Amino acid sequence: MKNYAVILAAGKGTRMKSHDQNKSKVSYEILHKPLVRYVLDALKPLNFEDIITVVGFGGEVTKSLVENSSKVVWQHEQKGTGHAVMQAEPLLEGKEGYTIVCCGDTPVVTTETFRKLLDQHINDKNALTLLTAKLDDPTGYGRIKRDDTGDQVEAIVEQKDCDDAMIEVKEVNAGMYVFDNKELFSHLQNLKPNNAQNELYLTDLVAMFRSEGLKVGASIMENPDEMMGVNNRWQLYEAGEAIKMRINKQLMLDGVTIMDPHNTYIGIDVKIDADTIIYPNTHIYGNTVIGEAAIIGPDTFIENSEIGDHAVISKSVIKNAKIENGQEVGPFQKI
User: Fold this and answer.
1) I want to staple 318 with a disulfide (CB 3.0 to 4.6 A). Which of 122, 202, 302, 304 is the partner?
2) Of the listed 15, 115, 210, 233, which one is catalytic?
3) CA 52, CA 91: separation in Å to the nearest integer?
4) Any alpha helices (H) in 12-131, and if so which ranges?
């Protein structure tokens, strides 16, 4: 069976409060990388037959970010998540396989979480599997209502609709799903805009599938931070902090000394060898490679560069450059 993915990236992002009418929400950056590229990079190792990105507001910007790694379809009117997935119908309808549906504004999600979701869906022979999380404080999230066995999902209950029992449930919908592809597109046409927003909601498929006796399960993510969506600039910061500390922790576990991980900014594609020391207020981005036992910083900016073993760089700006083994740069140089 083949795997497919649909990334929902058409939203306007009104709460970002931008005056730029051409800027899509998913084009905002964390560590010099657009949000949607994090999602694409998390999906790619799973070897999808097709990845399709649904673009809309600021669509030309989003298209330019994803078209080398994804097919693109347009949602010219934002009529809900179900309507967004419908735009991929010409490319996916009738195909055998499994389709992950996720959002382009969830940059913290990892390949491992997508893999676990897909594996559980296949192993349990579900028609739909939701990604869920257990939160100490689930306020504001749709609760997961399971059947008496605890294996199947009966519904997603929005907080305003929760009774006393459901309000205590800690398991919530993370907004990512995997479907049997044929079942997905055969049921999308039956969605109705039964809500004040007059939109078609993908979550309504849970009740629809269950009413027809189709299996609906849930995969609980190990790290709830991965469900973090970016809807405003504070959430952009929060997601950035999670990604920054994940990167810095892994580098330190791999033998790099980072003197102050809270004030060191290293992009996800950067490669650094062991015994290198990074001093505070250093920014390293792009396809930068740093050799072993180099000394970098403080107050240094490096982008798309190759830094040799034992190089020393301080208080300098290095872009698209090659610094030789043992070479010293700075302070106050620009290359």
Assistant:
1) 302
2) 15
3) 9
4) 35-43, 59-66, 81-86, 89-92, 111-124
Are 34 and 28 a contacting pair, CB within 8 Å?
yes
d(C-alpha 164, C-alpha 170), whole Å: 13
**Is pTM, for the whole model, over 0.90?**
yes
Token digits of residue 209: 């599938």
pLDDT in tens, 66-102: 999 999 999 999 899 999 999 999 999 999 999 999 9
pLDDT digits (tens, 9 = 90+) for 126-153: 999 999 999 999 998 999 999 988 889 9
Q: Return phi, psi of residue 83, to 5°.
A: -65, -35
pLDDT value of residue 187 = 96
**Residue count of the chain:** 335
**Spatial CA neighbour of 220 closest among 317, 92, 120, 303:** 120
Question: Which residue from 240, 87, 101, 86 is spatially nearest to 175, judged by alpha carbons?
Answer: 101
Strand-pair category, 282-285 with 264-266: parallel
Q: Establish whether 15 is a catalytic residue.
A: yes
Q: What share of the chain is helix, strand, coil (3-state, %, to 5)?
A: 30, 30, 40
Find all residues with CB under 8 Å of 253, minimum gap 6, and list them: none
Residue 305 exposed, middle or buried by CB count within 10 Å (0-12, 13-18, 19+): buried
* Residue closest to 26 by CA, chosen among 79, 70, 82, 90: 70
Q: Exposed, middle or buried, 165 (CB in 10 Å: 0-12/13-18/19+)?
A: exposed
Residue 110 burial by CB count (10 A; 0-12/13-18/19+): exposed, middle or buried? middle
- Please, are residues 201 and 82 in contact by the beta-carbon 8 Å criterion? yes
The tokens for 101 are: 């549906």
